[in-house]
Specification:
This protein is of the alpha+beta class. Helix content is about 40%, strand content about 25%. The protein has a three-stranded antiparallel β-sheet with strand order 1-2-3.
């Protein structure tokens, strides 16, 4: 967790800031802030936990989960 948290040590959060988490093919959690990569952490359990927060059975934002599902379905139809 310390390594994950340290990715944000010098970040000044502002409205509209884009924070992206990506799991690459090697079980690394890649963090990007406004398009710039901030770090990559090799931890399958961290990847699962973080995505479960947003896409699991009890997501922090049900609307975001619905939007993700809808956008995924639309892109698969193309």
């Amino acid at each position: 967790m310390a390594k994950f948290k340290s990715q944000f040590d010098d970040v000044v959060f502002r409205k509209g800031m884009e924070i992206v988490f990506v799991q690459d093919g090697h079980q690394n959690l890649v963090t990007k802030i406004d398009g710039a990569q901030r770090g990559a952490i090799s931890s399958p359990s961290l990847c699962r936990s973080l995505f479960d927060i947003y896409l699991g059975q009890d997501p922090v934002s049900p609307d975001a989960k619905r939007t993700f599902g809808s956008n995924l379905a639309t892109s698969l139809k193309k």
